[in-house]
Amino acid sequence: EKNANLKIQMKDFEASAEPLQDWLNTTEKMVQESSSRLHDLPAKRREQQKLQVIRA
C-alpha cells in the first residue's frame, strides 16, 4: 500500500517537474543568446567607429 502511494507521488512529481524543465531549457537558451550578443558588442562598436571615420 505504502509503495503504491510512493509511485503515485513520483508520477505527480515528474508531471510537475516537466514545465520546470522546459522553463530551465528556455532560460538557458536566452542566457546563451544574450551572452553571445554581449560578445558581439565590442566588434559592433569597432565597426561603427570605422564607419564614422569613413563618413567624416
From TrEMBL:
Protein name: Uncharacterized protein
Spans annotated as Disordered: 34-56
SUPFAM superfamilies referenced in this protein's UniProt entry, alphabetically: Spectrin repeat
Residue ranges, compositional bias (Basic and acidic residues): 36-49
Lineage, uppermost ranks: Eukaryota, Metazoa, Chordata, Craniata, Vertebrata
